[in-house]
Amino acid sequence: QVQLAESGGGSARPGGSLRLSCAASGSTSGINVMGWYRQVPGKERDLVASITTGGRTDYADSVKGRFTISRDSARNTVSLQMNSLKPEDTAIYYCNVKARFVINVEGASRTREYWGQGTQVTVSS
């Protein structure tokens, strides 16, 4: 099992900055992707940014150039630096982890997903 602890949510003014962090614990050796999603009432949960073990990143078009995702493998932590915040960034942000586990003696594996409880980000003047 993997447990996720989120921190850094809060309020900011338009143009301001916030930094979200997510620390994974438990069976962390199989983690290959860590990222952040966000959701507002009445809409689906969408990817904000993700990063793989190899360092490949993926960003939503709406945050490119403003948000930066990074990870500290030694500490099993992923961070999201959010700059130039806009009111439309307001949402609940969820940490997401994808981990691979071996399921049989032949070495077959499957990927499992884990979610944080969510942290509120509010951007308003």
List the helices and strands and how they pair.
Layout: E1 2-7, E2 10-12, E3 18-26, E4 31-39, E5 46-52, E6 57-59, E7 67-72, E8 77-82, E9 91-102, E10 109-115, E11 119-123
Parallel strand pairs: 2-11
Antiparallel strand pairs: 1-3, 3-8, 4-5, 4-9, 5-6, 7-8, 9-10, 9-11
Structure notes:
The protein is mostly beta strands and about 120 residues long. The protein is about 0% helix and about 60% strand. The strands form two sheets. Strands 2, 4, 5, 6, 9, 10 and 11 form a seven-stranded mixed sheet that branches. Strand 7 (about 65-70) and strand 8 form a beta hairpin. The radius of gyration is 15 Å and the shape is elongated. The mean pLDDT is about 95.
How do you describe this structure in short?
This protein has 125 residues and is an all-beta fold.
Low-confidence stretches: none
Terminal Cα span: 41 Å
Sheet of most strands: 7 strands, mixed
- How many E-type strands? 11
Strand content: over 45%
H/E topology pattern: EEEEEEEEEEE
- Structural class by SSE content: mainly beta
Radius of gyration over all CA atoms, rounded: 15 Å
The dominant shape is elongated
* Overall pLDDT score: 96
Number of H/I helices:
0
What would the keywords be for this entry?
mainly beta, 125 residues
